[in-house]
């Protein structure tokens, strides 16, 4: 009991037991409530002090944390012979392994005719992967763009897609969204790094945030006994004459990039919320 003399019956209600019609103790009649009490400020403060270490009380009054948002990572690529597509599918596995993140595969539109593709012996495309339009980009929280090299820069199909994003650029709809790159080249000196860093201009004009992988892949980035694509800019593979497929190490690097980028994107999105 505090120094204020304890709680006193409230004068705002009449004691129903004083009614001449009552012959039972107070509260025995249906609808009767126990007398209300009024506590002084000292009693309220004392009750707060006594309960401040009670876990049940703390759990009742502690504010609940808002649920984390499931982020959408769009993996957008162009692949003529399937090398970039193989990396894209492993990247999706990496994204999906992060709690609260989900990867979505898209390809950009082809601008070569079927006759030309047949002449180049390009295999049929996986029709289960949809073709994306620029307007769909707004719904994503993060991006990973993949493409083969053409003289040290992205393929024309991917460049045409970026060129179609003018209205988004004008309104800066993609500003602040994180993005990264993964590539395929024909030879060791064919642009594993330049193909990625020449693409950074696309992100810069949109106000997007470039997320390189650095050397976070660990020891696999330093091995010299096997031919390996990829760089600090992002995952990569060597296509050679088209017959070489991505190696296990290259696929693991791609999966790592998906996981790493999704983790960073998740922190950025939840921090913004």
Structure summarized in a few sentences:
It is built from nine helices and nine strands.
Tag the structure with descriptive keywords.
alpha/beta; single chain; globular; seven-stranded mixed beta sheet; two-stranded antiparallel sheet; 15% strand; 273 residues; 9 helices
Structural notes for this entry:
The chain has 273 residues and is α/β, with parallel strands linked by helices. It is 32% helix and 15% strand. The chain contains 9 helices and 9 strands. The chain has helices at 41-51, 55-61, 83-96, 114-119, 156-163, 166-171, 194-197, 200-206, 248-272; strands at 8-9, 37-38, 71-77, 101-107, 142-150, 153-154, 178-185, 209-210, 236-238. The strands form 2 sheets. Strands 3, 4, 5, 6, 7, 8 and 9 form a 7-stranded mixed β-sheet that branches. Helix 3 links the parallel strand 3 and strand 4 (101-107). Helix 3 (83-96) crosses helix 9. The longest helix is centred in the last third of the chain and has 25 residues, at 248-272. The chain is globular, with a radius of gyration of 32 Å. The two termini are 45 Å apart. Mean pLDDT is 84; it is low at 10-31.
Mean pLDDT: 84
First-to-last CA distance: 45 Å
Q: By helix and strand content, what is the structural category?
A: alpha/beta
Count of distinct strands: 9
- Approximately what portion of the residues adopt beta-strand conformation? 15-25%
| Computed Rg | 32 Å
How many H/I helices? Answer: 9
Portion in helices? 25-40%
Please give the largest β-sheet.
7 strands, mixed
Low-confidence residue ranges: 10-31
Shape call: globular
The secondary-structure element order is EEHHEHEHEEHHEHHEEH
